[in-house]
Amino acid sequence: MNKLKLFFEDRAFGVCSRLGEKLNFPIDSIRLFFIYSSFITLGSPVIMYIIMAMTMKIRKYFRKMNNPVLFD
User: Fold this and answer.
1) pTM of the entire structure?
2) CA distances from 22 to 28, 32, 36, 66 (A)
């Protein structure tokens, strides 16, 4: 079970962990919030999660693009 958990954590977008670090809040509570709220509201937090993941990837891309060390 632990191996499965590590597999998904490595390949996940990292939205919950990033929110947990920024808000200084337990990561497991944020994950449970997304799970329970998606059941209650029929999946609308999943859309919010995907949008947040896309913005994180775009920000990472622009940071990598503006890094002067990479242009040597």
Assistant:
1) 0.64
2) 14, 17, 22, 23
